Amino acid sequence: MSSKEETEPAGDGTINGLTVLKSSELARFSNNELQEAMDYCDEDFGVGDLIVVKTPAAGGTNWTIETIAGEQVEKTIRGILVYVQRSGVLWPSFDPDGSGNRVLQTYDFKTAQLMCDPEEVPDEMIDVLEDYKLADATETEPAIYNWEGLPYNQFGSGKDGHGKRCKDQRVLFILRKDDIYPLMIRVQPGSLKNITKFIKQIPAVAKVPYFRCEIELSLTKEKSQGGKDFSQIHAKLVGILDRADGELIKENFWDVLHSGVAKQADEELTESDDAAYTDAE
Q1: Which residues contact 252 (CB under 8 A, 6 or more apart)?
Q2: SS3 per residue for the chain
Q3: Measuring CA to CA, which residue among 25, 116, 97, 83 is closest to residue 263?
Q4: Strand partners, 231
Q5: Are 268 and 102 in contact (CB under 8 A)?
Q6: Structurally, how many domains does the chain consist of?
Q7: For residue 278, is it within any domain?
Q8: N-to-C CA span, the chain
Q9: Residue 277 lies in a domain
């Protein structure tokens, strides 16, 4: 497909068959009063200030978004997928409850670094981790391990032989029309297959990077292999930004988050998420 075909809307206002969303429809780029309010806010804004939207427990099918004006309850969340943060975590127990630090964490899915003090590593993990250590800790850097080969990262190593003990995770950063900062949404294990498949299909279907795509997230009630009800996320591609507007998103969000801000946000979210992986396997 030529550049012209990709970036110029057709007569029906679509690109590649998808509805075109204009940056002028996004509050971040269009509301002068909002920009003035931001300019006069005498407080630094950090990643910890982003609104985190949790997947509901026990099969709930509504999103609850906590704001200073109260709760917003929505059937769907719709906005630009400005960034996707990938990571993997090894917890000290099969059912993390927020009382223990992460043992290992990876962002490239090849190597992982030790996230806790060595004395906090569970006794049953010590010998296994030692066999897969690639580099000892230094005064400034933690120990490094072979994430790909780690037995805990193989299928069948999870609780009762289901899944993996190491948990892959994704955090979606979604910019809604009326928001100036994206929402953060943790993708739980029971939804991971759906979401990763969706993201992989975007280049073939939309023929643009994901940060130029408007998506819609909904929830269905499903049952895990262990018989527990959980909420599963489903994503739908509903619109697209043209190339020029996509560059605004890339500059204002993707580049910033990719520079390391998203990793910091993911780490803070992981530390505060008391039930990160108890929904489903």
Answers
A1: 28
A2: CCHHHHHCCCCCCEECCEEECCHHHCHHHHCHHHHHHHHCCCCCCCHHHCCEECCCCCCCCCEEEEECCEEEEECCEEEEEEEEEEEEEECCCCCCCCCCCCCEEECCCCEEEECCCHHHCCHHHHHHHHHCEEECCCCCCCCEEECCCCHHHCCCCCHHHCCCCCEEEEEEEEECCCCCCCEEEEECHHHHHHHHHHHHHHHHHCCCCHHHEEEEEEEEEEECCCCCEEEEEEEEEEEECCHHHHHHHHHHHHHHHHHHHHHHHHHHHHHHCCCCCCCCC
A3: 83
A4: 221
A5: no
A6: 1
A7: no
A8: 40
A9: no
Q: What is the pLDDT of residues 108-145, one digit of tens each?
A: 899 999 999 999 999 999 999 999 999 999 989 999 99
pLDDT score, position 265:
72
> Which structural domain range is residue 232 located in?
3-272
Q: Please indicate, yes or no, if residue 279 is contained in any of the structural domains.
A: no
Share of the chain above pLDDT 70, in %: 79
CA nearest 272: which of 102, 130, 129? Answer: 102
How many Cβ atoms sit within 10 Å of the Cβ of residue 46? 11
Please report whether residue 198 resides in a domain: yes
Do residues 97 and 273 lie in contact, with contact meaning Cβ atoms separated by under 8 Å?
no
CA 132 to chain centre: 27
Q: In the block, which residue shows the tokens 């990763």?
A: 196
**Highest mean pLDDT out of 19-28, 109-118, 251-260, 267-276:** 109-118
Average pLDDT of the chain? 84
Q: Hunting for tokens 């569970």 — which residue is that?
A: 122
pTM equals: 0.79
Q: What was the pLDDT predicted at 39?
A: 62
